[in-house]
Model the fold of this input.
Amino acid sequence: MKGSLVLFDIDNTLLNTGGAGRIAMERAFADVFAVDGALAGVEFQGHTDRSVYLHTLGLHGLPDGGADVYQTFVDRYHALLSRYLPLHQGHLKPGVPALLHLLRDAGALLSLQTGNFREGAGQKLEHYGIARHFEGGGFGDNLADRPALVREAMRQFRGRFSGPVYVIGDTPADMISARANGAFAIGVATGEHRRDELTAADADLVFSDMADVAATMAALTALAAPAAR
Ligand SMILES: [Mg+2]
Done:
């Protein structure tokens, strides 16, 4: 794995906040826009926080108040997220953080491609004790489409990786984003999408979970190895 770049999605790939993220965002809409239950029926999976924000404004007929209102909302969300993370019983996904240690020991660079706001991503990773494994990444603050997240993360590491790029995520959107950027698409069915859905989205590899970290490492390594002759 030496010289490779591994880009992780966060929610339902590395961890699950036990609903803290969604509740914090819903409360932020209530506090900033006086809309209760703003996120009822709103799909987060495969979207960025920026796109969820814009979609939800539209859903409730609220005008896009511009950058100042957006920043007020983002700040409120982060204050609420730090309050709710410890109040909700979340978890790291199986194999995390052991796999992160193994990847780093093997010389891989670890970063993120996540729809989370940058600060919210950091709060979640800190709360679950895995922030130190990651550097930089593509975040959902100003990017509304998922492939741009992978593109941005790859740009930050230009010249620093010599091996393949892996994108690891739990949604078809993660697989599509990987493919769009010439990265290996690694699906992990620890969210709401089944293995066959990730396979159908053109995943190179799909895991039920990453609990068997040695097998996961071997499969990732084999993917990049030249075919046996
Ligand atoms: Mg996810």
